[in-house]
Write a structure and sequence with these properties.
alpha/beta; 2 helices
């Protein structure tokens, strides 16, 4: 899991999550792994968002997390770990 955190300009525990996943493999007995079209395009889009935030110096009223997960094709491992962390911290994610 790779992530970038952009802190809010206001005092809030709310977090907006924008995510993608970058793993791909043949699943369920298939040798076909269409990740370049599915996972790759989502990850490239997330990187473009991060680059734009940095270039323009964008600030947010809520916390923003950009996260790229792994292990999603194998059972949502990355996103489940991330979600459990927020539950333990009692954070709100939209």
């Amino acid at each position: 899991m790779n992530r970038s955190h952009y802190p809010s300009t206001e005092n809030t525990t709310e977090t907006v999550l924008i995510s993608s996943h970058y793993d791909s493999r043949g699943s369920f007995g298939s040798t076909r792994a269409p990740g370049g079209n599915d996972d790759g395009s989502g990850t490239v889009g997330l990187l473009a968002i991060a680059r734009t935030i940095k270039r323009l110096g964008i600030k947010f009223r809520s916390n923003v997390e950009l996260v790229v997960f792994a292990g999603e094709e194998q059972g949502l491992f990355g996103s489940k770990f991330y979600a459990r962390t927020f539950v333990r911290l009692r954070c709100f994610v939209f």
